[in-house]
Amino acid sequence: MARNSSAGRSCAMASHHELASQRIRTEVSRWRAQDRAVVGVHGDRCQQKIQTRRGETNKPPEDHPILDEGQEECARASTAAPARIEGPRRWQARPTEEENRQLEAVGRTDIPVAEGSHVTLKKDRKLRIASSCHGSDGLGNQGLPPATTAKPLDQPAAAFLVEQANLYPGQVTVVALGPLTNLALALELDPLFPKKIGQIVVLGGAYSVNGNVNPAAESNMFGDPDAADIIFTCGADVLAVGINITQQVILSEADREKLEHSDSKYARYICKSLAHYFDYHGEVYFTKGVYLHDPTALLAAVNPSLITSAEGVVRVQTAGTTKGLTLFRSTEKWYADMSAWSGMPTVKVAVTVDAPAVVELMMQRLMADD
Question: Region annotation Disordered: residue ranges (predicted)?
Fold first, then answer.
């Protein structure tokens, strides 16, 4: 993340949704109260927001752009390519329609949308399983009409990431809310990308807990484990926020009622999908609330004091029964034998979170208009 910016710090996120269609979603917003520009997420109040999806973009905003690559395990999906992996159904490829629908729904068609890679880093077809979590339309069964004005950009998402890192070296934070294919492709385009990017905040991994795709893997790591392993070991400033953290941050029924009484366009938008997500979490997790995966990762980038972290080497299992498993070697123990962890760059892994503060901050953003 940008550390010193005279006009404000830039925080970017690039989010890509997988399946045969993957996208990078990036949102940029300026925090004037703090010396920082921030990326908003899922209706979060943004004053500038860039969304990129499955690889294409648009020219950067006037201020420091910020990219976000990814999606959250259970925050949204699409009629054909959901944002998360949950449930038994496979999705089919679809265009950037979902992102454009969302932008039109909240009156933000000024935000560019770009497509990301349609396949994994190894050129395999991307399989997504998430209809039970995200609904038949991938947006919590909101029934939004087709987008009429918002159009995708022409630049591939990976190229956009590289462009922004070169335009604003050290000032761009990537909040990766989905599989890391586009980031890995950016690294292929520019081997110096890890040194030019400010920080990469990854929503992904299950550290000392079961995954949400299967007992071994969290959905974003499972979506492209090869890309994830490359990003974790590329030498960039990486912070991993796993589901061991995000599943501690829960939107309650009381929070939902507050949103329903808000006049904010973002609150009205998000409330249309909450019934589906509350039902899903009740059936699958037996909880009376919704896990705030994406917002937790985003806000960890915006306000690092919300989490604490440990440092070490993370490797991702790329094949077999435990495909997508994240294995964290803490720097607290020395091993005599060489291994796949030996000599690798370290990353930070979130180990605690101030859950009430995350929920409160997200609620404030959702209930305030631009």
Answer: 1-22, 73-102
End-to-end alpha carbon distance in the chain: 24
pLDDT at 334: 76
Place of tokens 């335009």: 167
Residues with Cβ within 8 Å of 100's Cβ and at least 6 positions away in sequence, in order, are 109, 113, 147, 150, 151, 152
In single-letter form, the type of residue at position 160 comes to: F
301 neighbors 175 (Cβ within 8 angstroms): yes
Single-letter amino acid code for the residue at 26: T
CA count, 13 A, side-chain hemisphere, 31 = 22
Run of H or E residues at 173? strand 173-176
- Give the pLDDT mean for 34-50: 30
- DSSP reduced 3-state for 319: coil
Q: What percent of the chain has pLDDT over 90?
A: 46
Percent above pLDDT 70 for the chain:
67
Residue with token string 């019934």: 275
Q: Where are the alpha helices (DSSP H) in 9-138?
A: 97-105, 131-134
Active site residue 64: no
Q: Looking at residue 56, what is its pLDDT?
A: 36
Burial readout 166-203 (b: 16 or more C-beta within 10 A, e: otherwise): eebebbbbbbbbbbbbbbbbbbeebeebbebbbbbbbb
Q: What is the pTM of this model?
A: 0.73
Q: What is the largest CA-CA distance in the chain?
A: 61
Measured CA to CA in angstroms, residue 17 lies from 83, 126, 137, 331 at distances of 5, 10, 14, 33
Does residue 121 register a pLDDT over 90? yes
Using the structure block, give the residue that is written with the tokens 């990762």: 297
Which residue type does 208 have? S
- Say which of 118, 134, 276, 293 is annotated catalytic: 293
